[in-house]
Design brief:
Strand content: 15-25%
CATH architecture of the largest domain: 3-Layer(aba) Sandwich
Bound molecules: ligand MGD, iron/sulfur cluster, molybdenum atom
Number of strands: 26
CATH class of the largest domain: Alpha Beta
Oligomer: single chain
Number of domains: 4
Amino acid sequence: MKRNTLLRQWTGPLTADLTLHPGNFGLGKVPARFQPDATTTMVCGFCSTGCGLNIHLQDGRAVNLTPATDHPVNLGMACPKGWEALTPLAAADRATTPWLRSPGGELAPTDWDTAMQTFTLRFRAILDQHGPDSVAWIGTGQICTEELAFLGAFAKFGMGLRHGDGNTRQCMATSVAAYKESFGFDAPPFTYRDFEESDVIVLIGSNLCIAHPIMWQRVLRNRNRPEIIVVDPRKTETAMAATQHYAIRPKSDLTFLYGLAHLLIERGWIDRTFIEAHTAGFEEFRRHVAPFGITAVARACGLSPEELERCVETIHRGHRVSFWWTMGVNQSHEGTRTAQAVINLALMTGNIGRPGTGANSVTGQCNAMGSRLFSNTTNLLGGHDFRRADHRAKVAGILGLDPGRIPTENSWAYDQIMDAIDAGKIKGLWVIGTNPAHSWISQSAGRKILGKLDFLVVQDMYPTTETARMAHLILPAAAWGEKDGTFINSERRIGLIKKVLPAPGEALSDFNIIKLAAHYWGCGSLFQKWTSPEAVFGILQELSRGMPCDITGIAGYRMLDLEGGVQWPLPAGEKLEAGERRLFADGAFYHADGRARFVFDAPRATPEPADATHPFLLLTGRGTSAQWHTGTRTGKSAVLRRLHPAGLHAEINPEDADRLGIKSGQTITITSRRGELQARAFVTANVTPGQLFLPMHDEATNRLTFPAFDPQSRQPAYKACAVSVRPGK
Ligand SMILES: Nc1nc2c(c(=O)[nH]1)N[C@H]1C(S)=C(S)[C@@H](COP(=O)(O)OP(=O)(O)OC[C@H]3O[C@@H](n4cnc5c(=O)[nH]c(N)nc54)[C@H](O)[C@@H]3O)O[C@H]1N2
Ligand SMILES: Nc1nc2c(c(=O)[nH]1)N[C@H]1C(S)=C(S)[C@@H](COP(=O)(O)OP(=O)(O)OC[C@H]3O[C@@H](n4cnc5c(=O)[nH]c(N)nc54)[C@H](O)[C@@H]3O)O[C@H]1N2
Ligand code: SF4
Ligand SMILES: [Mo]
């Protein structure tokens, strides 16, 4: 294949204004900064736990890894994905060159110069003809914070786009919206040690054993013999290991939580001193939950009144109660209010700011938190607000930008971007590090919508993903392990990743691809100071100054490396105390009056309840600890493939299976109003009669899901839709 002139020049500076970061491109080189046979530590690139992994090098290249024993997060442990993290990098289907669709419709390899010229010309032509709303991007919580910030800054300040969002909308938008309203800033307050220090741990819609196995190991290190309460319609692996399991009816969480609040108030089991000193709106909340009497609540949630009483008594008896939630809460048609109902319980019982307590959103992807703060989508860089002139002026000043380049409104959310593509308003889309043709809700519509685009650019490790196969242009990305940067984990810890292997062929880090795109776009000079990930980290530190996420006290990547990551905030002048840090120890929240808010609403019916033609409610989620999302990475490991059943399995209760004449292992057909799929039946009492469970890892699952969204966060409600089941095909 023709090697273009640009690429040849990349062994040195390309031009005066474009030097690609040497730690971040392919060409078979690993920077000579490690001893040839040394071991270096970096964080894992799968889930938000952020485990430290020791990478063992031979001749300066990674050959193996082991969990780091002295890392504050994982204390020597890793889950199967962590152990297998290097394997997907060597997969045979890695993208090693850009790919361009020919006028005949075929994707064929091309060179970077052609790719970037096409990128620039096609997107520019659309923008010139249809205006700044007509091109958008969808990013990810799986690339480095520096890359996310660069992407968001280039797209909005350089290309002049108005709309970009990320897969974090599918995942974390609810927690963001809830925390912002309740606390005044998007701030998960906990530290992992809280798992070890609680005497009551309440997990709501969270299957920690499967989705965050090393956080679960932290729970197992708890020496207080804690009560572990799991609230989940399914008897998950986590529920089996818990001391109490409340199998509530799907989407009855809000009623359930208001019922608990009402019982706590009725019995006087609340912390009046804390409420009066640190919160606002309790009286209104008390009146709101007054009608949520125990009998009606128990009936609505499919529980007995005794179960509700036991749950409330356990919370009351606890001295250090921590509340944790994940997708069972976030992916709901009323997710934000549900998350806030969890927060309200912590506030009213004074279970926040002390060891072993908190209203704690467990995040999902390795850099969900980086995306939440620095992706320049719904927040202006660094947790700022696009709508505030003072914030725009501050950011413009630090970046040396004309403030007029900064949009004065938030981006459209993911679903609004999809709607705008459907309506023909958006004609160009740049997708980075996510696979919407598998993971977006209601796929039959989703794929049709993506198919309407005039120009779809996909930037991924693999040209084989469901979305890449639809692209007009594929940009080959280096992966975790092949580039430098930082991730922010669930407990707000900023950790390092490092280049320990060369990227294959001509693949480039996302950082360098964005730098190249800015150069071809003709706005490289705007980003003259964005020379390397560490230089960008310095800029992000400056942007964070004075914000709740202030990290001006971090002494560069070296400090992150030495400390095993640093939790935000760490303002300049503050010493990093040994150990782990949580927020709100002083009871001061981020609203102007320092008080947290009680926020609440009336529960609403599920958007698509089961009925006569579609009598089952379908739940979806994570299948096993060996599978990651759309499987582009974990599917490449033979070890991980052996750790989960082959093919798609649907969990169905024995009563339903008997009634329908379905046996375990048999093929069944599941149909919703939007599509159908075949799966093998897995007959198990772990799901309640009338419910089914499908893992999200198979592309067929989202053919069935119903496109409903939480109104405050616009997060998709992946976890409930009506389906019917029959044996056979
Ligand atoms: N192995 C593995 N680990 C992962 C991931 C992965 O793909 N694979 N993905 C990562 C990401 S991005 C995320 S966001 C997290 C997700 O982590 P989790 O949220 O823990 O995982 P899920 O299985 O999506 O959903 C959790 C539970 O919600 C329950 N649920 C469904 N409906 C309801 C309801 O109405 N109420 C309640 N209370 N519960 C309900 C489901 O039965 C399920 O057990 O995992 C992260 N970790
Ligand atoms: N039915 C159902 N659907 C769901 C969910 C559910 O519970 N149920 N959960 C939702 C949630 S919480 C989430 S987070 C989403 C996840 O959905 P996606 O984000 O679509 O899933 P991934 O498979 O993680 O996709 C990441 C992509 O980025 C690529 N990649 C990896 N590393 C890099 C990199 O460094 N650079 C670049 N450029 N690319 C890279 C991978 O090859 C892969 O194609 O799915 C959502 N969809
Ligand atoms: S728990 Fe998460 S961060 Fe830790 S090794 Fe597993 S996937 Fe990686
Ligand atoms: Mo997620």
